[in-house]
Design a protein that fits this description.
This protein is α/β, with parallel strands linked by helices. It has one domain: Arginase, Chain A (3-Layer(aba) Sandwich), CATH 3.40.800.10. 31% of the residues lie in helices and 18% in strands. It is built from seven helices and eight strands; from the N terminus they run βαβαβαβαβαββαβα. It has an eight-stranded parallel sheet with strand order 2-1-3-8-7-4-5-6, sandwiched between helices. Helix 6 links the parallel strand 7 and strand 8. Helix 6 runs parallel beside helix 7. It starts with a strand and ends with a helix.
Amino acid sequence: MPPVTLIGLPTDCNSSHWRGPAKAPAAIRGALHSGMSNLCAEDGTDLSDPRVFHDAGDVDIEENPGDFERIAMASKAAFAEGPAVFLGGDHFVTWPVIEGLTRAGHQLPHLVHIDAHPDLYPDFDGNPHSHASPMARLMENGRLSSLIQIGIRTINAVQQAQIDKYDVRVITPAQMPVLSEHLPTGPTYLTIDLDGLDPAFAPGVSHHEPGGLTVRDVLGILRALPGPLIGGDIVELNPDRDVNNMTAAVALKLLKEMVARVYEDQAG
């Protein structure tokens, strides 16, 4: 059984408002190796065990249009061998990662998307690769079995039209008590935008949106997914905006728990 592969995607050229997420993979790895915490998830899964977890380093990003193929090919290679998780980078990266997953021969996944924003703009500021648009690209290209978005709290008319067009299921923070009724069953990919959490828990993001999820909410979602969970990503940490590395620590916590769940589901 192969370990869960980690790949960093240090890119933020498709960001709006603030840049900085390109520094996130290094910041999260810094927390991983800092001695601040150990490498065990809450169920005892130990990421220091090479049979469980393998860090394959970063994709060689050039911050140009060719990065789509670089990320997609790295994703394809990883998923051809086994499960994989990714560290963004801005949320653009989920699009080529899922593209790579499908090229590796996997069936179309359910995408569970934790975020403050739907990221469904047809384009944003004229950029169809914007980090505000990856879900639109995935849906229009038929790369998903379904899309459920959790924690959303910034829907405008443009994005509501997209939600209706693509039959996206949206769960706002106020609707969390009914979440279990809407979670998909089958191969699932989980993307976590850290601004889906309330800024009290994750201040190191570019787009603060109060009223979000707690860390424990997100961990609960991770455990509640019917699955199997085949991979995922953690995106939009902006180390330049962080406070005492709090958000990097949150990202590390989520990474450990994500790896543990993926490994558990692979083991059957």
